[in-house]
């Protein structure tokens, strides 16, 4: 993101939060609490990426979808009891618990390409290429542009390897 070059993260957070307030209004009145830190601070310091689905938010705003408290006390059949005593019947319950990379659990060896938190184990800009054809894209907390940039590096590297492996070798006729 270009703003990173000119402004500190906390200023970018303030600008983005003002824009979100202008577009979405007070999301807390619909049951959606904002995190304690701004979205870019969160992205830079954790493996979480705050996302707002505008279609879902429109349905929440219209009342078609209702946000309920997160603390569930119990489930019996279709009935869900919440910690505050509310009970509601549902056809389906979706637990949106977030995403955590499990790559470190199944990948035998990455030579430090992937960190313990599932993100890139190496610093930008040398984070995308590992050993034995292993690559890493979009894992350095640089958003969609960072993923795009990583993909370009990876494609270029693979292209160079393909070009060098397809060059004919000359046999000088000696045995």
From TrEMBL:
Similarity field: Belongs to the FMO family.
InterPro entries tied to this protein: Auxin_biosynth/cation_transpt, FAD/NAD-bd_sf
Residues in coiled coil: none
Reaction catalyzed: indole-3-pyruvate + NADPH + O2 + H(+) = (indol-3-yl)acetate + CO2 + NADP(+) + H2O
SUPFAM superfamilies: FAD/NAD(P)-binding domain
Enzyme class: oxidoreductase
UniProt signal peptide: none
PANTHER family xref list: FLAVIN-BINDING MONOOXYGENASE-LIKE PROTEIN (AFU_ORTHOLOGUE AFUA_4G09220), OS01G0273800 PROTEIN
Source organism superkingdom: Eukaryota
Record flagged with keyword Cell inner membrane: no
Protein name stated in the entry: indole-3-pyruvate monooxygenase
Sorted UniProt keywords: Oxidoreductase
Enzyme nomenclature, EC number: 1.14.13.168
Protein source organism: Oryza sativa subsp. indica
GO MF assignments: flavin adenine dinucleotide binding; indole-3-pyruvate monooxygenase activity
The keyword NADP is assigned to this record: no
